[in-house]
Write a structure and sequence with these properties.
α3 packs across α4 and α3 crosses α9. The chain folds into 2 domains: 173 residues, Quinone Oxidoreductase, Chain A, domain 1; 135 residues, 3-Layer(aba) Sandwich (Rossmann fold). It is an alpha/beta fold. InterPro entries: ADH-like_C, ADH-like_N, ER, GroES-like_sf, NAD(P)-bd_dom_sf, Zinc_ADH-like.
Length: 339
């Protein structure tokens, strides 16, 4: 099969590792496993971080990619409930374990060191394979798993979003933030967003947001406070000074859920701002099998569709990564593998 292979380890801060488009051996299904013929894959910022050497435990050679959708090509011994030809998507949360509160010590994310979706075929444990929601196109289905899982756990499982909550999501446009907006709005929450792009704010409003502000404006925190009236729930992937701004915007007794820190550490945080407001601050990453199943059920019940920004052929993945690094997309960037 054709695949994109990561072969070179790089040190953090060094040159980004190249992806090699080449022939590799087809995967074979062992007991309890399923081989999927992939139609589409999708990008995540994790893929770029792996190429930059920013994840621990990187092993090469390996095939990146955490998101994908396709058709079952082979069933391993003991697999029940599926048949060859079924249309499926994969849960990229590998080996979560039995405790829904946190993952097992052997937990990993699909795609480095476990071979991922930047390939024509992939081998998965049967427990990680789910029927493709029928209302989604192949591109949309490939775009959903990691972003949908992360956003659902952040907004619902951890954030406990409620109808009429005011939710703030900074940095709208990324895959997880965009899905988090859809999930919160589907629960009847009033969602406000931030972006450096007025166009992205307008697209978020068309997707269900109640409003937003451009964080390039010097007084954007005051603007958002006046517009939203404070947050009952904030979903943060940015960290840095933005995290402190979310504490400023937080209503007493509200929740802040963090799943990323693209702007680095939070420096000079004044703890009284947290405990005097009685804030609940929670961390999350990925999600449990139950989270994934509930996320799929919500998308089917509400007929939600993840936003696909642009589609590249598999062999052009490095160009797609560059677009994602520039932060110009709104929603997910997808790779076409086999039509």
């Amino acid at each position: 099969m054709k695949a994109l292979v990561l072969k070179d380890k790089v040190k953090p801060g060094g040159e980004i590792a190249k992806l090699y488009y080449e022939e590799v051996a087809d995967p074979k299904a062992g007991p309890g496993e399923i081989v999927v013929c992939l139609r589409y894959a999708a990008l995540n910022r994790r893929d770029v971080f792996v190429r930059q050497g920013l994840y621990p435990g990187i092993q090469v050679p390996a095939i990146p990619g955490s998101d994908g959708a396709g058709v079952i090509a082979e069933l391993g011994e003991g697999v029940e409930g599926f048949k060859v030809g079924d249309e499926v998507i994969m849960n990229p949360s590998m080996g979560w374990g039995d405790n829904p509160k946190f993952p097992d010590v052997n937990f990993s994310v699909l795609g480095v060191p476990i071979n991922g979706t930047y390939a024509e075929y992939i081998k998965m444990p049967a427990e990680n394979v789910f029927p493709k929601p029928k209302h989604l196109s192949w591109e949309e289905a490939a775009a959903l798993p990691l972003a949908g899982l992360t956003a659902f756990r952040a907004v619902v499982t951890k954030g406990q979003v409620q109808e009429r909550d005011t939710v703030i999501i900074p940095g709208i446009g990324g895959g997880v933030a965009t899905v988090a907006l859809q999930i919160a709005a589907a629960h009847g929450a009033k969602v406000f967003v931030t972006s450096s792009s007025d166009e992205k704010i307008e697209r978020a409003i068309a997707l269900g947001a109640a409003g937003g502000v451009n964080y390039k404006n010097e007084n954007w925190v005051k603007e958002l406070k006046k517009l939203a009236g404070g947050a009952d729930l904030a979903i943060d992937s940015i960290g840095g000074d933005t995290f402190k701004d979310l504490i400023t915007l937080a209503n007493p007794g509200s929740r802040i859920v963090s799943f990323g820190s693209t702007r680095g550490p939070v420096n000079n945080l004044l703890m009284p701002r947290i405990f005097f407001k009685q804030l609940h601050i929670m961390g999350t990453t990925m999600g449990s099998p139950s989270d994934f199943a509930q996320m799929l059920a919500l998308f089917e019940e509400k007929q939600l569709k993840p936003v696909v920004d642009e589609v590249f052929p598999l062999e052009k993945a490095e160009e797609a990564h560059l677009l994602m690094e520039q932060g110009k997309q709104f929603g997910k960037i997808v790779l076409a593998i086999q039509e």
